[in-house]
């Protein structure tokens, strides 16, 4: 990955060397990523989150790509497409670090890479089928917070495509998002293909909101807009996970970023309202609210910081409660608080990507060598310890953000990352919660390389079908190698000299 000539290098005087330096608009890089995402889209019909009864392939002449060697071929094509997207993203990052491109090429690249995925089957997840199932429950007068989509006796295509784990599990999402899902299902009915496409179109509103907020956040937080867009919009986590998935985090992030921006611009009432609405889509947005109180308090006049904090806190609570109640009532037709208990549902997912769960599993395996024990007590204790650590860390970050302004936003971004890592479950796209806010700050190249490694790793630790690959150790070893190589390629083109080794025999033959 990412082994072509880097624009940051000083070219030699020869014509051949000059021709290797890309133009200011990276057409070839954008085209490479577009080819990659097109391969992702095509291969997903055999290797992605395919439907139980697929009306596109069905039992026709192309159905072979869903089985046996055909599916192996589809997987090979899909991972090739993924590699091209990452390669293009890393090349684009080198252009950004070299200062050779501005914001426009990054936006064009992200748009071109997302476009083929609009009509793709879900990639690396099947969550969108759950969204549609829960929306169908609300549409037909059932309570998504009481039971799973399996209780539906209509829309068989919607029900049967929900993952078995979530068939009988209450919805963990906010009521406003369920209302959105209800609208999608009311439009598309039992047509799952149209349902997935329309869900992506609706979630694009979230991307648009984030794009509107990022340039303004960068001005407040001191970053560089091309870097922020490269990190937050063109990355594999955004293109492949949030959009290719798709995931409702994309819409929540819009309310979060615009709300934080409003707070920085002294529009405190709007900030609290927007972040509360984001919480009604996905509860994670609530993490930002205590930090917005600090921003508000530091904008108030008066010498008493305690009094300013109490005023801002009281006003925030006074705004939060009616918006929360009204949003819940409008979405569900009642003040149904069942979605709080629904938040326990994702904790059924247990794997080592969540650090406390991983620690529990390590201790279990060590003890299991000597004594026959169950894994659950070890994981439960480790998760409880992780929650205590998260609470302590979050309170400390909140206290460190008491100066308001950019410091409070930075601490909010760090806290969102901590929630994604320490609170079960940890799912790959959860890291975008913090990365999108933090992208607007100033970044060092070595830190960007770390983000590349993390982005590639977390995108690949699930199979394209949405099933986890975390215990396929040979596969994970390859993922680690690909992640480290991608990170090194951001700072140094062809870090292992693979391209040079390929070219030297040709040079020897010419000489």
Automatic annotation (TrEMBL):
<feature type="transmembrane region" description="Helical">
    <location>
        <begin position="309"/>
        <end position="332"/>
    </location>
</feature>
<keyword id="KW-0812">Transmembrane</keyword>
<dbReference type="GO" id="GO:0016757">
    <property type="term" value="F:glycosyltransferase activity"/>
</dbReference>
<feature type="transmembrane region" description="Helical">
    <location>
        <begin position="30"/>
        <end position="52"/>
    </location>
</feature>
<keyword id="KW-0472">Membrane</keyword>
<feature type="transmembrane region" description="Helical">
    <location>
        <begin position="412"/>
        <end position="436"/>
    </location>
</feature>
<dbReference type="InterPro" id="IPR049829">
    <property type="entry name" value="MptA/B-like"/>
</dbReference>
<dbReference type="Pfam" id="PF26314">
    <property type="entry name" value="MptA_B_family"/>
</dbReference>
<feature type="transmembrane region" description="Helical">
    <location>
        <begin position="72"/>
        <end position="93"/>
    </location>
</feature>
<feature type="transmembrane region" description="Helical">
    <location>
        <begin position="471"/>
        <end position="491"/>
    </location>
</feature>
<keyword id="KW-1133">Transmembrane helix</keyword>
<keyword id="KW-0808">Transferase</keyword>
<feature type="transmembrane region" description="Helical">
    <location>
        <begin position="448"/>
        <end position="465"/>
    </location>
</feature>
<feature type="transmembrane region" description="Helical">
    <location>
        <begin position="192"/>
        <end position="213"/>
    </location>
</feature>
<comment type="similarity">
    <text>Belongs to the MptA/B family.</text>
</comment>
<keyword id="KW-0328">Glycosyltransferase</keyword>
<feature type="transmembrane region" description="Helical">
    <location>
        <begin position="378"/>
        <end position="400"/>
    </location>
</feature>
<feature type="transmembrane region" description="Helical">
    <location>
        <begin position="225"/>
        <end position="244"/>
    </location>
</feature>
<protein>
    <recommendedName>
        <fullName>DUF2029 domain-containing protein</fullName>
    </recommendedName>
</protein>
<dbReference type="GO" id="GO:0016020">
    <property type="term" value="C:membrane"/>
</dbReference>
<feature type="transmembrane region" description="Helical">
    <location>
        <begin position="269"/>
        <end position="297"/>
    </location>
</feature>
<feature type="transmembrane region" description="Helical">
    <location>
        <begin position="105"/>
        <end position="124"/>
    </location>
</feature>
């Amino acid at each position: 990955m990412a082994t072509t000539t880097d624009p940051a290098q000083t070219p030699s005087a020869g014509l051949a060397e000059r021709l290797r330096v890309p133009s200011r608009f990276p057409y070839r890089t954008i085209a490479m990523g577009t080819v990659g995402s097109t391969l992702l889209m095509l291969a997903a019909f055999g290797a992605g989150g395919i439907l139980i009864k697929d009306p596109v392939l069905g039992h026709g002449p192309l159905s072979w790509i869903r089985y046996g060697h055909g599916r192996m071929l589809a997987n090979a094509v899909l991972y090739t497409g993924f590699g091209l997207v990452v390669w293009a993203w890393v090349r684009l990052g080198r252009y950004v670090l070299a200062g050779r491109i501005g914001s426009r090429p990054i936006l064009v690249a992200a748009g071109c890479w997302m476009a083929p995925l609009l009509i793709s089957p879900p990639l690396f997840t099947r969550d969108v089928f759950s969204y549609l199932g829960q929306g169908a429950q609300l549409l037909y007068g059932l309570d998504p917070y009481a039971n799973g989509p399996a209780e539906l006796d209509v829309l068989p295509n919607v029900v049967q495509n929900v993952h078995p784990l979530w068939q009988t599990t209450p919805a963990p999402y906010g009521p406003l998002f369920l209302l959105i899902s209800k609208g999608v299902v009311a439009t598309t009915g039992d047509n799952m293909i149209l349902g997935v496409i329309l869900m992506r179109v609706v979630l694009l509103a979230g991307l648009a909101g984030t794009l509107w907020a990022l340039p303004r956040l960068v001005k407040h937080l001191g970053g560089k807009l091309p870097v922020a867009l490269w990190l937050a919009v063109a990355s594999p986590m955004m293109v492949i996970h949030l959009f290719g998935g798709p995931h409702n985090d994309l819409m929540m992030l819009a309310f979060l970023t615009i709300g934080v921006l409003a707070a920085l611009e002294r529009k405190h009432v709007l900030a609290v309202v927007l972040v509360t609405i984001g919480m009604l889509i996905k509860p994670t947005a609530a993490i930002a609210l205590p930090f917005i109180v600090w921003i508000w308090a530091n904008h108030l006049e008066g010498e008493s910081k305690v009094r300013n904090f109490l005023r801002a806190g009281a006003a925030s609570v006074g705004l939060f409660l009616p918006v929360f109640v009204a949003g819940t009532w409008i979405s569900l037709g009642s003040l149904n608080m069942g979605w709080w208990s629904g938040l326990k549902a994702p904790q059924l997912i247990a794997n080592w990507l969540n650090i406390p769960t991983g620690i529990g599993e390590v201790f279990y395996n060590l003890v299991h060598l000597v004594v026959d024990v169950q894994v659950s007590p070890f994981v439960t204790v480790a998760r409880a310890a992780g929650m205590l650590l998260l609470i302590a860390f979050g309170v400390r970050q909140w206290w460190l953000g008491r100066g308001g302004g950019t410091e409070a936003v930075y601490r909010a971004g760090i806290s969102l990352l901590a929630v994604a890592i320490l609170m079960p479950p940890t799912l790959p796209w959860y890291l975008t919660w913090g990365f999108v806010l933090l992208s607007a700050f100033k970044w060092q190249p070595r830190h960007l390389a770390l983000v590349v490694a993390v982005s590639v790793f977390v995108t690949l630790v699930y199979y394209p079908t949405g099933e986890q690959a975390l215990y396929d150790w040979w596969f994970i070893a390859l993922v680690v190698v690909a992640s480290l190589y991608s990170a090194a390629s951001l700072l140094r083109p062809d870090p292992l000299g693979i391209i040079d080794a390929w070219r030297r025999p040709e040079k020897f033959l010419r000489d």
